[in-house]
Amino acid sequence: MNDDRDDSGTDEAARGEMIRLAERRLASPAFAALFQQGMELVDETAAYLDGEGRTASRALSRAALAAYAQQSMRLSTRLMQLASWLLLRRAVAEGEMSGETARREAAKIDLKGPLRDMDQESLLPEPLVDLILRGYELQRQIVQLDDTLSAPSPTPDELRPNAVAGQIGRLRRAFERG
Fold first, then answer.
1. Cα distance between residue 89 and residue 111, in whole Å
2. Number of other CB atoms surrounding residue 131 within 10 Å
3. Has residue 72 got a pLDDT over 70?
4. What does the alpha-carbon distance between residue 40 and residue 32 come to, in Å, rounded to a whole number?
5. Which one, of 40, 39, 133, 138, lies nearest residue 90 by Cα?
6. Within the chain, how many helices (H) and strands (E) appear?
7. DSSP letter string, 88-139
8. How far apart are CA 169 and CA 173, in angstroms?
9. Is residue 27 predicted with pLDDT exceeding 70?
10. Which residues contact 154 (CB under 8 A, 6 or more apart)?
11. pTM exceeding the 0.70 threshold for the entire prediction
12. Backbone φ, ψ for residue 113 (5° rounding)
């Protein structure tokens, strides 16, 4: 009988097959929804800043107008960085770009961005504040996913034995003998 188990009872094949859930998430409906949400926020922000926001800014005080200009620029920059990251990751998921190329390009993207300035937000029109808050939420989700994708893979020594895989291996061997 050929027994491919190590001392922990884990099959050799099971030890070598680690599933990177974060990478699989890029091809999932959850990523498609995040991508769609991000692109819609970019479009909605551009429409607001070119239309209703421009009109609303004319009625602002000097201090509020300065805050509006700074915060709208920060929001636009943040959304362009996030959209770039989303487009890179979608290109990898669709096989248009290698993961290594995407990692090099993603290193040029500032996902952290400037800190939130709530004092200035109190001077801004409510629709702009809503867009800013949604931008920060999108940023939070993307940073979380990026951190997961960037985490180093555990080495074989760091992997704990998988009891389920060991049981499946024993069942497989029993049926093969049988």
1. 14
2. 23
3. yes
4. 12
5. 39
6. 9, 0
7. HHHHHHTTSS-HHHHHHHHTTS-SS-SPP-HHHHTTS-HHHHHHHHHHHHHH
8. 6
9. yes
10. 18
11. yes
12. 65, 180
